[in-house]
């Protein structure tokens, strides 16, 4: 008898962490079910069968837009051929994108139900018709109590499963000296994101803020970067690659310190975080660290840009374009670092966010998916949610 299996794929490096947590939860609850998938750094560490590589998908542009070069088309063709042979019982898409939309259509044609783990930023679904999304997905499991614009407009049955970010944040315990930082000295952390395009687009304004703040007495300024960016020679600070910048920093003091990985630990020690608009904004909220989300101004978008504001469904924090004058951004940063009414209000607002979110998202998702797999296989009923967005 063929072993039961499911397929999983994430749309970004941060979503890959969530995918790995879901795989581990599925392994605990259903140890005899095999996982197949497109794996990144984190999900690749799980006990699973690899059908593709996330970094390769990102390099080919498959998650953001239809860059169907011959190489990209060959990757997708081979992937679908492998999936036709493996015939998983269910497909799990962690975040939505162009590639995931295409895969959802493929699975629909194969009569394989598709579950969306709903953590999709609004900017990731441009050009995708919401009506066709509703036709391809069976259910969506989300981190937002009300569901995102995607599930609201597509009419996909929706379950709120809690915040996976809360589970990770609650496990972090670290002291400043363990990261080479001085205790009792405020830390300003800069998190441009893990994607090369966004990093390069916003780094100039982040770097200018970092260099200016570094000249302020009594502050420690740290640039946090994903490991994969350090190995990419195209990612530079000024004329130097990140790797060379870090090597230089070992031999002489620099205004801007670069720290690879350990982003949650660094964030937990921070007085202010200057960030991109992705999952880091949720983590700031859960740590109650005041933040300044900065987005690439050249990318058009309406509505909230940060995942925090999108998840909560209201503008909890202000968002800033990368073309905003540096002196204005600096003024905002100084007000949020210093004790006072603006900092106090943001800390209170972030506490309200933290209290509104529940944890155990991966376990809840595994429970829903396992139960629905059983129902679909037995043909007893179609997927039905306790809340339709």
Oligomer: single chain
Strand order of the largest sheet: 3-2-1-4-5-6-7-16
What coarse outline follows from CA principal-axis ratios? globular
Helix amount, in percent? 40-55%
Number of strands: 16
Main sheet characteristics: 8 strands, mixed
Structural class call reads: alpha/beta
Regions with little confidence, pLDDT below 50 for 5+ residues: 380-389
Describe the structure.
α1 (about 15-30) crosses α16 and α12 crosses α15. With about 400 residues, the protein is of the alpha/beta class. It is globular. Strands 3-2-1-4-5-6-7-16 form an eight-stranded mixed β-sheet, sandwiched between helices. Strands 12-9-8-13-14-15 form a six-stranded parallel β-sheet, sandwiched between helices. It has helices at about 15-30, 55-60, 70-85, 100-110, 130-135, 150-155, 165-170, 195-215, 225-230, 240-250, 265-270, 280-285, 305-310, 325-335, 340-355, 360-380, and strands at about 5-10, 35-40, 50-55, 90-95, 115-120, 140, 155-160, 185-190, 220-225, 235, 240, 255-260, 270-275, 290-295, 320, 385-389. The model is unreliable at about 380-389 (pLDDT under 50). β14 (about 290-295), α13 (about 305-310) and β15 (about 320) form a beta-alpha-beta unit. The chain contains 16 helices and 16 strands.
């Amino acid at each position: 008898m063929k072993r039961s299996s499911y397929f999983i794929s994430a749309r970004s490096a941060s979503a890959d962490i969530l995918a790995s947590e879901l795989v581990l939860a599925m392994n605990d609850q259903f140890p005899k079910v095999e996982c197949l998938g497109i794996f990144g750094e984190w999900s690749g560490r799980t006990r699973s069968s690899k059908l593709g590589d996330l970094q390769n998908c990102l390099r080919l542009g498959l998650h953001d837009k239809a860059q169907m070069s011959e190489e990209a088309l060959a990757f997708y063709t081979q992937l679908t051929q492998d999936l036709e042979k493996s015939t998983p019982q269910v497909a799990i898409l962690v975040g939505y994108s162009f590639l995931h939309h295409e895969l959802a259509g493929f699975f629909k044609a194969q009569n394989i139900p598709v579950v969306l783990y709903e953590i999709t930023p609004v900017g990731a679904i441009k050009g995708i018709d919401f009506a066709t999304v509703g036709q391809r997905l069976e259910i969506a499991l989300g981190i937002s109590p009300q569901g995102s614009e995607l599930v609201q407009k597509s009419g996909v049955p929706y379950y709120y499963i809690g915040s996976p970010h809360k589970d990770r944040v609650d496990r972090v315990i670290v002291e400043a000296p363990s990261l080479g930082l001085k205790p009792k000295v405020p830390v300003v952390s800069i998190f441009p994101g893990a994607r090369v395009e966004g990093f390069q687009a916003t780094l100039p304004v982040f770097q200018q803020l970092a260099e200016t703040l570094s000249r302020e007495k009594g502050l420690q300024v740290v640039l946090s970067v994903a490991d994969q960016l350090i190995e990419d020679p195209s990612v530079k600070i000024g004329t130097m690659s990140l790797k060379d910048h870090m090597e230089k920093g070992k031999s002489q003091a620099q205004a801007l310190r670069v720290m690879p990985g350990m982003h949650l630990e660094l964030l937990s020690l921070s007085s202010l975080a200057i960030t991109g608009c992705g999952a880091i904004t949720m983590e700031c909220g859960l740590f109650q660290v005041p933040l300044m989300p900065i987005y690439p101004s050249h990318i058009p978008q309406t509505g909230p840009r940060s995942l925090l504001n999108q998840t909560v469904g209201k503008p909890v924090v202000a968002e800033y374009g990368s073309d905003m004058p540096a002196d204005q951004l600096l003024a905002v940063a100084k007000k949020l670092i210093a004790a006072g009414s603006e900092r106090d209000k943001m800390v209170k607002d972030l506490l309200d966010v933290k209290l509104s979110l529940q944890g155990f998202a991966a376990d809840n998702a595994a429970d829903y998916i396992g139960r629905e797999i059983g129902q679909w296989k037995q043909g007893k009923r179609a997927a039905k949610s306790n809340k339709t967005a």
